Amino acid sequence: MKKLAFVIGLLLLVSMFCMVIASCIGSGEVLETIPAEWHAKQASELNEQGLYDEAIEECNKAIELDPNYAMAYNNRGVAYHRKWQFDLAIADYDKAIELDPSYINAYYGRAWVYADKGQWDLSIADNTKAIELDPNYAMAYNNRAWCYYKEGQFDLAIADYDKAIELDPNYLFAYNNRAWAYKLQGKNAEAIANFETFITLTDNPQWIETARQEIEALQGQ
Which structural domains are found in the chain, ordered by start? Predict the structure, then answer.
């Protein structure tokens, strides 16, 4: 008899607990149990899908849960950058770096924003910092080279493209960009060789056609 009473009492407690949970769910009072990291990773995936507004929402949730979570600011910076909201992107990259001064992706991301704004020296500085943190970061060399190229510092640009290709021999953009740098230096043979390598590495018909046109123009000089 006592055992039956115990079982009935336990069932009543479970029932009451379920009712309380259901009531909280209905009123929106259940506390967030998904960690900030999950929201930040979701934002990264959404950025890759081009769903930038949704990515920003996920980052906002992550930051609400953990205001000191550098990845959330970085990923939101990526989304703002891709929406061409440069000042908001820089502010988020700034915060990510403030929270984690060794956050390579934040330096690299901010460098891209500065480059898109035509602020070449600031972009060079951030790419340089990324390289200091990871000397094998091929994309940072390529992007710093692009800034040197835009400033007309072709020797520095080519040196960085050389390093990017040394680190990643199939880095097609580095070959294409180095070709343009050689072209502007009047080094046609080197430019042609790089355009030809670029063609072997891409299957984009428009890029291939453009490279072939450049080769024909250089051969005709």
Answer: 22-101 (1.25.40.10)
